[in-house]
Amino acid sequence: MQEATAERIVVEALKFMDAAAQFPTIKITPSNVVDEGWHALILHTNLYETLCKRLGRFVHHWPERPDAERYDEHALTRTVAIIEQTGHTVDSELWTGPTKALVSGGCGPINPGKCASHCSGGGGG
Hints:
With 125 residues, the chain is mainly α. The protein has one domain (3-120). The protein is globular and about 35 Å long. The chain has helices at 3-22, 32-43, 45-55, 75-85, and strands spanning 62-63, 119-120. The chain starts with a helix and ends in a 5-residue tail after the last strand. Mean pLDDT is 80; it is low at 103-118. A two-stranded antiparallel ribbon has the order 1-2. It has four helices and two strands. The longest helix has 20 residues, at 3-22.
């Protein structure tokens, strides 16, 4: 992956984290691509903890097993709206569904085309 693409993905993950911190009771979900950036941040635990402190709240990751019955085709649209409500402008190319993603990603073996809500931030403790 090119460095510029990786940077775009991480920036969108930071916007997602900010939205999740500002709206902790609303379940939002990243696109598969943005989820990869979020996972990259989480793996750097000291950095992630510092980021969360600056946001005023720890943003937990709540992985969910893929379930076609739970699929929500509007999850990304709602998430983008929440991110925009926090004052951010999203990089729309990175907020597409899995069939239009810039790069592949996901939380594990998922059902392509049915995975827009397999991980979430907010909506938890």
